[in-house]
Write a structure and sequence with these properties.
about 300 residues; four-stranded mixed beta sheet; alpha+beta; three-stranded antiparallel beta sheet
Length: about 300
């Protein structure tokens, strides 16, 4: 059965680069995961995570036919319908891993060699790796187009330029929107930056691809040149976004909101000196000596 055509929902924008993203809290069935991986990532708690929102109240990019939620789990939507990998063979789930890999990386794409290294690290023959990757791309296209028939095959790019990527015109990821919002906030006037950062921190609803029903992906735990994993990089970015938001609230004399952001940051790391100083400044501006002493 093919789902109805996805409805286009239009939401508010900031400087023409900001869209609110859908954030449903569903994931792949445990039985499907266990049959392929036999190991699940059971980490998911994150003090920086935003409160869960009503999934039906969210708006998303009207141009995107498929929406990918990676923070706090891994869920794939075509329109208003959650979709899952279908098929008896394990290769279908390998295709789903490719989707997670591209959705979780900052630019929505990777060099083909990096895709092969990440997903088939034991394959030393280049031709064999290419064949496996092309098969995963084909399976992924087939699964997504089953539920989103308007999705063009080119939405999953296997380019001659050596790149494997998702076309953002058709496939949207909360990770990519989060990064766009954070970047936009550094160039916007204060009030618009506040709007962008509020949307960014709302998108961060848990650690990247974390949860009891998310498969174990080895590449998720690889460390970059910075020494951080992808999950750690986005947690740092979420922390920085909340710090930026708290500072803007303070500058705009929205002290109660600034205090709330600083307290959220301190729940995860109570000894962050910069955050403690920011909180003390807020209480000082309010003249709340009791709260200042209590903290």
């Amino acid at each position: 059965t093919v789902s109805p055509e996805p409805s286009a929902l239009v939401g508010p924008t900031v400087a023409e680069v900001i869209v609110e993203e859908k954030s449903a809290q569903l994931s792949l069935p445990a039985e499907a995961i266990g049959s392929v991986n036999g190991h699940v990532d059971q980490t998911g708690s994150d003090e920086l995570a935003a409160p869960r929102r009503d999934e039906t109240a969210d708006l998303r990019d009207p141009q995107a036919l498929v929406y990918l939620k990676c923070f706090g789990g891994f869920t794939v939507w075509a329109g208003d319908r959650q979709i899952e990998p279908v098929g008896e063979e394990g290769g279908v789930y390998k295709a789903w891993e490719l989707l997670a890999l591209l959705a979780a990386h900052p630019d929505g794409g990777l060099a083909r060699e990096r895709v092969i290294d990440a997903m088939w690290p034991d394959v030393v023959d280049i031709a064999s790796g290419q064949r496996r990757a092309k098969a995963a791309v084909k399976r992924l296209r087939d699964v997504l187009m089953l539920y989103a028939p308007q999705l063009p095959r080119k939405a999953i790019i296997w380019g001659r330029d050596g790149q494997c990527a998702l076309d953002p015109q058709f496939i949207s990821s909360d990770v990519h929107t989060f990064r766009t919002l954070c970047h936009a906030a550094t160039h916007l006037p204060p009030q618009e930056a506040v709007t962008a950062l509020r949307q960014a921190v709302a998108l961060y609803q848990g650690s990247l691809l974390a949860g009891r029903q998310v498969p174990y992906y080895a590449w998720l735990h690889d460390r970059s040149e910075t020494g951080l994993t992808l999950r750690e990089q986005y947690r740092e970015a979420a922390r920085d976004a909340r710090k930026h938001l708290a500072r803007l609230y303070y500058q705009e004399r929205q002290i109660d909101q600034a205090i709330a952001e600083y307290k959220t940051l301190l729940r995860g790391e109570p000894t962050l000196e910069e955050v403690v100083r920011g909180l003390f400044r807020c209480y000082h501006r309010l003249g709340d000596l009791t709260a200042l002493l209590r903290e």
